[in-house]
Records
---
Amino acid sequence: MTITITAWDRSPDGGRGLARDTRVRWALEEVNQPYEVRLVTFAATKQPAHLALNPFGQIPTYEEGDLALFETGSIVLHIAERHAGLLPPDANARARAITWMFAAVNTIEPPILELVSAKIAEGDKPWAQERLPLVANRVRDRLRQLSARLGDAEWLDGAFSAGDLMMASVLLRTRPSGILDEFPNLAAYVARGEARPAYQRAFAAQLAVNTRPAD
Ligand SMILES: N[C@@H](CCC(=O)N[C@@H](CS)C(=O)NCC(=O)O)C(=O)O
């Protein structure tokens, strides 16, 4: 059955891989599943056709036959559950990998998004300069804890899993601020993720979309 995801027609990041379709592309590449991409504009994501797929008007979405999903955590879990390669066979190890997926989107991603909002959406407010360091420090607090847990391990819990895929994807967003590089083991962890052939293919695919000539 054909898998179709949605992605920005032109991503605001210009193809740096920070838009969330990249993590879904990465998961599909890890399990060798071909997929199609429907490119959408920001305006189109607020129209009824897209809202029927994602009530919050966001990308990416995932369609496969009569199944339509949104939320990258759910999409990546769906892919990982249906195809071998992203979740370990042992039940407890599998549960722990899923726990890391939730940790990525529930515990690590929120302060990172808050920092992005503080810079982009609120950067011109009179109180922004006072607030920014507080928000940045909340990101550092979480990364310090994650860094302590990772230590010098290659991945978070044994072999590479969907938990690492989600965590590395979320951490990537801390690189532009310089915060990722304050934690050398996390920076190396993200770099290991980016070095995976599946990530390279996913990155190249989204870059091609974002660097194609204008119509
Ligand atoms: N929690 C959602 C977040 C999706 C999300 O924020 N997508 C961004 C693009 S990376 C978006 O569509 N932003 C436009 C908007 O929120 O209106 C997920 O993980 O899928």
Note: The first strand starts at residue 3 and ends at 8.
---
Amino acid sequence: MPAARWSPEVGNMNSFVYESSDESATATLGAALAEVLPDGCTVALCGTLGAGKTRLVQAIASADGVDPRTVVSPTFMLVQEYQGRRPIYHLDAYRLADEDEFDALGPDEYFDGVGLTLVEWADRVAASLPRDRIEINIEVIGPEARRFTIIAIGGRYADIIERLRARL
Ligand SMILES: Nc1ncnc2c1ncn2[C@@H]1O[C@H](COP(=O)(O)OP(=O)(O)OP(=O)(O)O)[C@@H](O)[C@H]1O
Ligand SMILES: [Mg+2]
């Protein structure tokens, strides 16, 4: 089977577009995601520098009971763990030389765990991600405006998109 690709071309997906006008609207999206994302789910985040990947992780973690001040890009640690109502694993592939370096972190331990795993720059390590996952692509459409395209890849999370739509 070919490795799953990062793109909306993936066949069995459905998607939801959320246009955020400012950071508080992004916080609203994060809170809705925290409600609908099940334990053990992996979220792949993609978008340019400063798009809002870390900001969205902060919003999700905060809604799960984590102090948002502790949520920063795991630049040097590569992986950070927060304890809210469930563990949250925050990974960032930006500084990795290649996908082998990502695999050396033992990411399956996070993907297979009961926590929520959030991966920044996930498009750089797409082949190492679980087949079933949520992908979120963030586009900068204004100084404070962001477009979030949320895609369920694989069958396991197909219902998440409808549940998210119902909450927003
Ligand atoms: N609507 C919005 N949603 C999210 N962030 C916003 C919004 N409007 C402005 N911002 C700003 O955009 C920036 C997003 O930074 P953030 O660190 O989350 O980006 P990132 O995608 O994680 O970048 P990097 O690739 O460097 O890790 C912050 O400075 C934030 O204040
Ligand atoms: Mg970041």
Note: The chain is about 25% helix and 25% strand.
